[in-house]
Amino acid sequence: MTIAQEKNPPVKLPNEPAITPQIVAEHGLAPDEYERLLKIMGRTPTMVELGIFSAMWSEHCSYKSSKVWLKKLPTKAPWVIQGPGENAGVIDIGDGQAAIFKMESHNHPSYIEPYQGAATGVGGILRDVFTMGARPIANLNALRFGDPNHPKTRHLVSGVVAGIGGYGNCMGIPTVGGETNFHPAYNGNILVNAMTVGVAPSDRIFYAAAAGIGNPLVYVGSKTGRDGIHGATMSSTEFNEDSESKRPTVQVGDPFVEKLLLEACLELMATDAIVAIQDMGAAGLTSSSFEMAAKGGLGVVVELDKVPMRETGMNPYELMLSESQERMLIVLKPGREELARKIFEKWELDFAVIGHLTDTERMVLSWHGDIVGNIPIPPLVTEAPMYERPWTLTPLPAELDAAKVPAPKDWNASLIALMGSPDLASKAWIWKQYDHLIMGNTAIRPQDGDAALVRVPGGGHKGLAMTSDCTPRYVQAHPETGGRQAVAEAWRNITATGAKPLAVTDNMNFGNPQKPEIMGQFAGAIMGMSEACKALDFPVVSGNVSLYNETEGRPILPTPTIGAVGVIEDIATSVGSRLVQSGLALVLVGETKGWLGQSIYLRELHGREEGAPPPVDLAAERHNGDFVRGEIVGRRAVACHDLSDGGLLVCLAEMCLSGGTGATIKLPKGAAAPHAYLYGEDQARYLIATDDGDALVAAATKAGVPAVLLGYSGGASVVVEGLLDLPLDHLRAAHEAWLPNYMNSAV
Description:
There is one protein chain. By secondary structure, the protein is α+β, with helices and mostly antiparallel strands. The protein has a domain at 576-747: Alpha-Beta Complex (Phosphoribosyl-aminoimidazole Synthetase, Chain A, domain 2), CATH 3.90.650. Helices cover 35% and strands 23% of the residues. It is built from 26 helices and 28 strands. The strands form 5 sheets. Strands 8-10-7-11-9-12-13 form a 7-stranded mixed sheet. Strands 23-25-22-26-24-27-28 form a 7-stranded mixed sheet, with helices on both faces. 60% of the residues are buried.
């Protein structure tokens, strides 16, 4: 195609409808946004051009409601190689290696079609990581479901878990960690957040910015079908009673093809052929081609009739907006086409040169020789809507007086009830469906530690710790405190293995940002997260925003999920949370005041969700955590568990159940009321099992860190002197039975 041809106005295809206000509204564009489009184009757009604007200006792709706030997050550190703005974040982990990771949501698709929605969420996040040159080494996920008694919940749990396991297992990548919660606020809008961590040579990172006028644009992977059209737009709106009709917007994945695509891409990356590479995720060919050209300051010609298609009669609109899975777009160096073709054909994947780069800064789409789209690229970015929406911060609730919360009448029954509740019950039914040991590098498995630990491939001793965390009820009560706590807990979980926390990826799941109270939740959470990330030297290097998580006007709990990665130089010095031997001293590190506001104890045993969430003292988090990490790496800790949901007694019960060894503790003199001390959710605390409790307490005292020796491991029961004596067998029966019984029971 010549330059002269590229300047031709687009033609209208046969049967193409006229652009009406109704069609504009169906594409998710507000009237003023459409006026902005007309000003950029200087004419009425064609349908494919309208579709491109719709996708690129959707909340999902443009971050138009959140960008102004996301800029407040800290993103830089000496170890950050690439922060937000690329497919995934990149951090230096030493020895010429980099960790590449990101978390993304697939909430709306997973509610409509749970298996494929969750499966393609895993596939998409895997591509984000390996498109940058990394071999994925681990997956994690954070799942939020509705009330277990809701008629759809069981179906959604079953489908989502099967989808995650089906895709990850077939790819041969272990799923090593995550979290699963239940709450009625998610009845009509579940959350499925998927995270992938990969490793690459730090000098072989691949980026998306196109370069080289005339360089070929190459399509590889699966053929394009009609699945997933309008997926990005659908994910940028609320659900309503017609949401089931959106099933065609859900993508269909094939993990076996993605495995081939992974290996083919990594093989090509070992050559010098690639200039730029981008996966086709949300908005498919539209976003991938547009973003590559925009980042490189170039134009692009896409010859749509050359795109491999798996369905007959497809048109340019469908080809540009399809979100068919397992596809990549690559800019090659001139003359490397045959080299690349042979690699992809060897892996039995489609390969097609579908265009080239230009110096016009325009996206030109051709269809059998006719121009069907011609869009200036820069203004699609610079003139994209960005809103500073009205926001109202959530006031901090009054502190709950622990004295006004009843103590258990039967302490044994209280612990059994909590350990068998939906949020605290064992999730083994879930993670046993995931292959968490494949590759042979998993050092800390699910439920054996606060964070997963995976050996870095390459024959050394280094390990990567990884976790995902959020306590939505805290965020609902006070977003700033909840955002602060989510970051702090992720930092604690990595610290509790002995690893040094390095960086964060986030997944911001919220309701309708056009409501000031919801926008205030988002703003407050960002404020808290930013403060915590700065205080803990824990920069945000990647992430995702998922808004409009509402059904019939009912929002989810605000859920800023934090994914985090840390490094430990020698995995032999790491610890899990299992109590596997008798005679170990149990030392509680951190101050305990007995904070019951927004606690699991208050909710599960008294049916109350009230009070302020526990405050987060970031200086104490840093001081206590650095001390604990030093004790672990110095091999003075045998096991460690951070205190979170359920407080001290739940933490101790989890350690005992995981390792099969009981423990006996007693409350220290001057402690808060027993139910507040044992079930309070004060932050910045760890329970450490050690050979020498007196020495650890002395070291903590010298370091200015609160610590107290509570008791010792041993026996076959969890014992709190004078209050509770519960055999592990009884506790295990309640803890392990709830989820399998729930999933196997009649609807």
